[in-house]
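pasting input
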Amino acid sequence: MRFLFKTSYDQDIALARHGGQRFWYGLLLVLLLAAPVLLQDYGLAQLTFVLIYGIVGLGLMLLAGFTGLFSIGHAAFLGVGAYVEAYLVARGVPFPLALASAMALSAGVGVLVGLPALRVKGLYLGIATMAFGFIVAEVFARWESVTGGNAGTHVKAPAIGGWALDSSIELYYLCLVLAVASTLGILNLLRSPTGRAFVAIRDSEVSAQSMGIHLARYKTMSFAISAALAGLGGALYAHMIKFLSPDQFDIIQSIDLLLMVVIGGLGSVHGAFLGAMFLIGMPQLISASKDVLPDAIGQAPGLKAVVYGAVLIAFVLFEPMGLYGRWLKIRTFFTIFPFYRKGMFKRQKSFQKSDRLR
Amino acid sequence: MNASSTPGPLLAARDLSVRFGGVLAVDKVSFDVQRGEVFTLIGPNGAGKTTVFNLISRIYTPTSGSIHFDGVELTQRAPHEVAALGIARTFQNIELFEHATVLQNLLIGRHTHRRTGFWTDLFFPHAARQAARADREHVERVIDFLDLQHHRDTMIAGLPYGVRKVVELARALCVEPRLLLLDEPSSGLNVEETEDMAYWIHDIRREFGITVLMVEHDMTLVSKVSDRVLAMNLGAVLALGQPAEVQGHPGVVEAYLGASQDLSGLRREASA
């Protein structure tokens, strides 16, 4: 077991808390950099998708996990980013500029959607964002001059000047760089006053306000950052999948995204990527199991939806802290072996919480 | 510590009234809180004490009347601006950020003193690190003052009630307020913890020069720390003065215990 001996405030400010963390995250980064050598084309494509969904997950995690605002319309931001990217790249705009525009426009739309968030909470916010998702999906289908409508549109490879990132390895590295940058950005926010203001709003709005936090501003900001990351993910997704159609950004996609952060573990940055791994890995597991299962089950239509639903229910019932929470428990079990107790991670129910000011 | 910008009382409430539908929760309440004093609101349940608190911290807007804080009209300010003016508060039923550590809670208390903007926070350059250190230094002074060293990295959700109460006080002190609003600081505390609370209120005033306005039921604590006491009943002011004077005031005794006529009236009804 590791005992941290703190001698400086900087140790609490640093991203890596001790040498062990620096080692393991360094190793992870080395493996990710070496992935094109280690993996076949298919594996690399899956890893690229994990990174892309991880970026989107980071945004949704900030919104749902750290600010406490749920969005069931996040696929709309993904779609805005994807279509902006497709449109601009098709017109020869260099990809860094196109990516920045995709993020900016998504963030702008995020601010628009954030406005109802200032008035409604919880389930009602979910309904409002879901309605927004439907509206945007409809716009994608109808605005044919820009989106190509239901017939869909092809996406060119990202290019700047004469250099086009048309191989899967180049695209992978682009996604890796952006995923690492987004993660660092989110971690920086979370260790500074902005991130703490989000957490304050999540846990108690009335006292956040009494501490001088401008609720409307920070909620809108959270929506904007979340939408910008979803837009970035959407832009990369457009390059990865190379063909866009409105049905890729429907309610099912939104629910998948929400499922991703809930299963990953709300309120943890790790959870965004663990959830992305689950979301990308699960269909593979299901299709692999089809050969083993009897035909009546293996070939049944809607198997994926049933499995996803069952997994989500299981997580909500047995592991509300998600995959990251499970990992924390396993790690704690081994670090303090044999002193692990069952109730260590049980959260105390609070009976004193006031409902008066809500 | 805090230089006063204008002479006169720190907080002046004039003819404050607030009506919720048909209920007149606060009825033309006027009082002054002088600089550096401990001013206590007492009264039976439902007297409107917490409502007065919520008016000052702008959670409610008064139906009529005004509140001046150091020359600033509070009713014209948005709720989140109150902390920046130098007013911090605690809540009757503890409103901490439950899924954050004590340290994070206290750092949130530094929000009004933040020196970094969104972009600085995002890229975390040297300036952001400096700001983080400066905030931490201030938080550590408060931690030392209230003996919270052992709980620094504990999640609020895992803390006992008494400690949470202290953490909430600490968070309010991190705002570096000029006026501290304490809503029932001793509720739910045992005798020893209440005694500690009395010493701390004393020290807050003496060491930091912070003016304290509190709502409290524990009369021992009230008479130990307060300079002046305002008794309320049914939204109106009953009595104002030294703790001993107010405790002996016939109106106050009546509000808490009922008048002798009331009792005899009840007796007649029962026998009839």
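fyi Chain B touches chain A through 52 residues (CB under 8 Å).
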